[in-house]
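User: structure tokens for this one?
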Amino acid sequence: MGGCTNCKGKAGCDDHKGQMMGTVEQALESLYPTRIWGEADDSSPEVLPPDELASLAEELATELSAATFVRLGGEDEPCDFIYVLCLGRAPCIVQVRDHGVAVPDEWLTADSIQEQYLRVVVSQRTRVAAVQQVAIDMVRGDGGFTVRERPRAGVYDAPLLSRMQKLVAILPAYELTHVDFGDIAHAPPGFQPGVWPDAYGLGTAKPSIANYLFYPQPTTMVSTSFVATGDGA
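Assistant:
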């Protein structure tokens, strides 16, 4: 989110962030006794159960007046995602890409479609969650549609901020601590990157705190997929 240097509530915000980062530091020490990325102790995972994850998505849909969609993390992603559709309309790209919804007729005549989401990421390792602004676009091509997901390092655009604030206020009811992406975008001091740089061809780069708590890929990495139509579907 944007800076708040001149905000009258900055002192209270700083106290909150101090508590938040204290929770993060405790989680890192517990989850990574060797202090090396890729060597997490997952013996006692704190997973938000599927029914609670679904309930959270449903409550967000009601309170934010927006469609929400759950995507479970992949085998290498110790987290789950909730997409909140902020700019766009259903059936949306996420429904077609992730949930088997048929390609809508309007896609067949459009060269491209752009949508904006809030993407909630919920850790499967500890009870923390974070939110990113994500743009997803569809481009029509031969045999189907190319879909690109472009996450940002936080939430910045004004139309999304009011929903972001309401969203964050709901998380504690599910025993989830919200962590600001701006505060977990750096490497944790004293930790070693392990095999992470080689896995992503990033040389001397180090994984951020977000990579230790949530998913392994760089936090602003663009992902591309293809939705086939016709005989290739």
